[in-house]
Amino acid sequence: MILTPLNNLFEIKYGNSLELINLEQCSKNNSNSINFVSRTEKNNGISAFVVKNEEIRENPANTISVAVSGSVLATFLQPEPFYTGFHILVLTPKIKMAQVELLYYCICIRSNKYKYNYGRQANKTLKDIMVPAEMPNDFKQITFDKISIPKKDVLVQKQFELNTENWQWFEIQELFEIKKGKRLVKADMLDGNTPFIGSIDANNGYREYIGQEPIHKGNTITVNYNGSVAEAFYQPKPFWASDDVNVLYPKFKINVFNALFIVSIIKAEKYRFNYGRKWHVERMAQSIIKLPVTINKQPDFEFMENYIKSLPYSSSL
Q: Does residue 285 share a domain with residue 258?
């Protein structure tokens, strides 16, 4: 296989470097909407939909977006025109490529992620990453119509309506005991199988596996107070959490289903926090979240569980 620098195959330029706060957000169904791509590793890099502005240049469809800071080397094929936030490079193929080829190069670029981190960004070195000069023949046989879609099996057939008007507010400290993670530097980490939860926004918070004994129990929820603030994840197994992560120990009977419901509610509070306004233990304890309730005005954990069980793919949880 012949390798070549990435910039031999793609024209590499910065995107728009826009701030979402300065744009008008809207629904995807808005006829005048356009995707806003940021440095997230989720949702194909799309963090919002915004109203098109004639004064802003659109990045064309069928190009590749690459985050060069934040979630470094979060790489996605963008099948539709889009705007970008800061530190996003847009890769336009120098020769016409099918979408399957663009997806192949997304994988090639992403495979270099291990070389980068928060302190070592990819803005100057992305162009020099070595990739195959052409896609192998085996991949050329792949077409989208040959990709099988998994069944959307559900555990509960009933459909549930989310009517938030009747929900009630609860302080997080009413529902959880909040404990801090513990600092562990890279040099002190051992090889092993204990999940290490960092303040990232992907992989369920798993940054790596270490040889130290777990310091927190499973069947809990982790919430980043620093870094990717307010990213929350259900942790099924015992783990070590970094000092940028708070751990929520439930005061109720928790399971993966009602936990994931509450995780989604917690993530909805993300807009309240940022790098300059962190979600530390004291602030988190007094923060409030809105939940469905029973007739007695207590959190309706059974409804939360059944709602998640009614969603597509719930049988895979």
A: yes
